[in-house]
Amino acid sequence: MKKVLVGLMVLGSIAAIASAANIGGQEVGVTVDATYTTKYIWRGFDLLDDKAAFQPSVNFDFGNGFSFNVWGSLAGASKNDGSISTVNAEEWDYTLAYGNSINEGCPWKTDYTVGWRFYDFPDMASNDADLQEVFLTMAFPELVGGGVTPHAAFFQMWPSEGSGAVHDYSGGIYLVGFTYGFTADQAPDLPMTFGWDIVYNDGTGADAVDSDWSHMVWSLSTSMTCPMTGAKVTPAIYYQNSFEDTVNTEDELWASLSYSFSF
Q1: What gap in Å lies between CA 198 and CA 213, rounded to an integer?
Q2: Whether CATH 2.40.160.40 fits 2-262
């Protein structure tokens, strides 16, 4: 609980400073999010061995396509039984990104984001835990129509230092999938989003990972506005089919609840 409170205080302070700042005459948009997830599943890996996590974040939108995000994960319970330890599992990720669109006005309109991310595990030595990556994500909102948006992503990861326990974690992740937005007749004011992704791992994210199609994920989410605060509340449920045992030996089912607001 102490780490959760400290994390919220740090993110809140950063957000307050940024919201009052102007960069080149441009006001900085700030979005603060607090998410509880029943499992921390990251690119197919069950990082906390079925333990829940609290994951706060703050995003800074500089209004010119550039953004900066600080995201944290704090394990909901401690465990150290010789298999997966959550004792030192506190994580903070820092992402610098640029997003824009090309091919406006045609079916091949592409919304893209390129960026760099640093994975920081403050309770462990940097050369044994910290990682970084570059990434590209693309969505094609006009390609299919009917609420279906295909998307694709690529992530290239490597250790933050040249030696240590994560020296074999380098490699790429390839993702393709789609989202489908719809509303149910019984709740026309409640937007729903169905998602499906399939992922190819070429040997990254853990020791001795085989290059193969590692998993696919099904998701269903909705969002609503909190009438008291105006914040956005987003519940979601996920199911993962795991294909590659070096990534995950089990299929996974988990859920999350997010509370976010912008100013």
Answers
A1: 8
A2: yes
